[in-house]
Amino acid sequence: MDTVAPELLPIKKPWYKQWWFIVLVIILGLWLVLPWFLQLFGYQPPASNGFTALPGATGEPTQVVNMVTVDDPQIGFSAAPVTIVEFGDFECPFCKQEAPVLKQLLSNYPDTIKIIFRDFPVPAIHVNAISAAVAANCAANQGKFWEFHDGLYAGQDNLGLSLYNSLAQSLKLNTAAFSSCLNSSAVVAEIEQDFTDGVSAGVRGTPTFFVNGHKIEGAIPYDVWVQIITAAVAEKFSN
């Protein structure tokens, strides 16, 4: 029988040096580091079920925070029993996704809800978020916030001065006043105040809603909104 000298035999690597183990370690490392990385850069995924439940619905109750303001745009019945305060970012795809849902709610619950929009731009992720918020506030100064709001979401892929001016013209705004407003430090200060208030109340990303003071995170399907509104009305009239 022919034999081979031991030094000529292939060397078997220890298990911890095998290629499959090295790949496994890399994958595990990414899995552990990725959530921290996303949090560092300000990204917050929508809630796992699309919402954080109100007291009375499934899930844990949240702290009640009054986020209602008189100087931010609002739409709906002024004396509505349910107030929805949205913290939004015009470059956020989830906010865009939610906009038609909220519009449908306003149509179907005209005497039940009102919506207040507050700015929460995240420029670390969305480079045009602040300029879009400024433009929307300038449109609000001329009574056209919600129309401008819809136009920004419709043109979300093209946010910038060209779109803002085009919307201002189509909405028949005073374009000279609008252009001047785009450089207003007072408007920027208002946006910064919204952002600061949001952070203080625990806003982590967009969209975040406060429904009669209860914080709910993420894009919410219409049928879930119906449950939330029903619970909010029941809570309102039980107190």
How is the topology of this model organized?
Elements: H1 19-40, E1 74-76, E2 82-88, H2 93-108, E3 113-119, H3 129-140, H4 145-154, H5 161-170, H6 175-181, H7 185-200, E4 208-211, E5 214-217, H8 222-238
Parallel strand pairs: 2-3
Antiparallel strand pairs: 1-3, 2-4, 4-5
Helix pairs in contact: 3-4
What characteristics describe this protein?
alpha+beta; Glutaredoxin; 5-stranded mixed β-sheet; 8 helices; 5 strands; 46% helix; globular
Q: How would you explain this protein's 3D organization?
A:
It is a single chain. With 239 residues, the protein is α+β, with helices and mostly antiparallel strands. The protein is globular, with a radius of gyration of 25 Å. The chain has helices spanning 19-40, 93-108, 129-140, 145-154, 161-170, 175-181, 185-200, 222-238; strands spanning 74-76, 82-88, 113-119, 208-211, 214-217.
